[in-house]
Amino acid sequence: MTALSPALPLWEDTPVTHRFGVAMAMHANPYSGELIRAIRRAARRHGCEITLADTGDSVANEAAVIRALRADRVDGVLLVPAAGDDAVINGLVRMGVPTVLVDRMAGRNDVDQVGSENIQAVCALVRHLAGLRHRKIGFISGEEDMTTYEERALGYRLGLGRSGIRWTSQLVACGQSTPGGAAAATAKLLDSWPSPTALVVASEAMMIGVQYEAHRLGIRIGRDLAIVGYGDMEWAGQVTPAVTTMAQPIEEIGRKAVELLLARITDPERRPESVRLAPRFIHRQSCGC
Q: Is-above-0.70 flag for pTM?
């Protein structure tokens, strides 16, 4: 049986208008806790309760979690989808369950969704490195079957093109969206030819592996190798050198997700929206400037 966390209570004497299920992997990303808090604050402002359910970032667990939430008669679902979960999303859409995909957006237009803008954001990171006269800019990509990482890979190629740099597969390696995978991908790129002078890292979790591997090899980040990333980790501004990155608007994502779900409940026939919120560029020292 799938365990659900109890509905988070509102302030006393606050009438409950709706109860939402929040299905996500609680520890899949460094910002998972921040996203939960953002959703909770937004729900409170609208007089809503939320019930949390941990999917473990697994499609099988996700399906079980959704069944449990529906059995618990929630009014709608906020879902951070696991990779390859089209069947789960298809089922929610087919059954008419008010649903919003959060953070990890899917390449479809039949369901409401909200997340960070990826293409132009990564393009800007590449162009920042190119502006520092880097011509061999590598890319640590994420899982290939996720729209989020496909968009970030597209942004990398767009940034190269706008900087007059030719794309080459030798400067791209898949980090599997994990610290260990990113460490292996970094080692592969740095041991190959042409060896990159700069790296764009597609997620917070993979930045951990890139940092580890650079230190293991004795490479001085910001001097021997420029590094920029997507997602602002709590430690990003505390390490030496601090990490230049695009910070996702987590608070705004949580707020907009709740608003979209309320709009769907109010008007089930409204046209689905896909909302991409711009991240914020944080310039620190890891890029070498």
A: yes
